[in-house]
Amino acid sequence: MTSLIDRYVYTALRRIPEQQRGDIDRELRASIEDAVDARVEAGEERETAVEGTLTELGDPDRLADQYSGRSNVLIGPEFYPAWRRLLTLMLAAVLPIVVIIGVVVQLFDDPDIGKVIGGAVTAILNVGIQMAFWTTAVFVVLERTGAGPGRTGLRLDWTLKDLPRYEPSTVPKTEVAAGVVWPILLTAALLWQHFGLNEVPVLNPANWSFWWPYMIVALVIGAGYQIWLFRRRSYDRTVSVVNAVQQLLFAVPLIWLLASDRFFNPEYHHFADLNGGDVKHWFTVGAIIAVALGTLYDIVKVILRGEQSRRGLPSKVPGTGNYNFG
Predict the structure, then answer these.
(1) Which domain holds residue 94?
(2) Last residue of a domain, one of 39, 67, 95
(3) 242 and 149 within one domain
(4) pTM here?
(5) How far apart are CA 264 and CA 193, in angstroms?
(6) 90 inside domain
(7) Whole-number Å distance between alpha carbons of 302 and 289
(8) Is 325 a domain residue?
């Protein structure tokens, strides 16, 4: 079992930049042990002395801020690298794809160069701001809720009961954030193409009677799964089953809509302008293959991670050296 001291030190170290963790780890442990020894020499039981010392030190998050010499920030050092990598990836890779798709659609609707450039600039600003806002919002939520089930991030008091279990997370933060941001962007795109476009929507409006609301609910379930997985902090067979179910809830209806020609709006005729409609056929086939393979890959990936976790492969807390608590 992990001691209270281990849990306290780990909670403090996770908010400290990695290059400082080794020195602060040793300094903090030595300070705690000295205070505990002094209480024991004064007649206290060791367990009581440990509890008293840690309670006197107070909230480890605030102690970490004092050690690192920084003020409170929106996204702390534990999440900042993952936030920066994901946001950079989305702005550098995803945003151009969205803009290109918008430009192509605009060229089909109205090839006026002014409208094409204006639409591209508008897409860059609107989509870029949305990506930055929602990605940051997700990481802020993770920052405020990731310390453990007992912490809300809003309480002013702190007790030892607020210490999380000493269980280093095996769940990649970037994947969790992407798994929450993507459903938001896809839902926004689904609503925008129907209500935001001045012309005929690309997707079948008849599906608003059931399938599009269903897909939005499935996306929300997928985002909720990512948050639940982050709070669970590790993979196991339960996670594998839940992941498979939520993946299939979204993928199976999507593949059926594509295969049965119910996905695209029959009144959207721009596909017919390209090679007699062959583009739509091959785009549909490609989408079905991509969805099927992507779903299968994600299900297998989570199953393999769960089996690795079940076998008890060794784990380390970044920057602390050689801990291996279960």
Answers:
(1) 73-163
(2) 67
(3) no
(4) 0.53
(5) 12
(6) yes
(7) 20
(8) no
Residue with tokens 């979204």: 250
pLDDT tens for 45-93 read 989 999 899 988 887 877 877 776 655 567 766 676 678 778 887 887 7
Report CA torsion sign: 235, 249, 218, 183. positive
Pairwise CA distance, residues 289 & 287, whole Å: 5
Please, what sign has the CA dihedral across residues 77, 227, 187, 104?
positive
**Contacts for 300-309: CB closer than 8 Å, 24+ residues apart:** 302/235, 302/239, 302/240, 302/243, 302/244, 303/240, 303/244, 305/170, 305/235, 306/235, 306/236, 306/237, 306/239, 306/240, 308/235, 309/170, 309/234, 309/235, 309/236
At 257-303, the pLDDT tens digits run 999 989 988 887 665 555 555 677 888 899 999 999 999 999 999 99
127 within domain boundaries:
yes
153 and 103 within one domain: yes
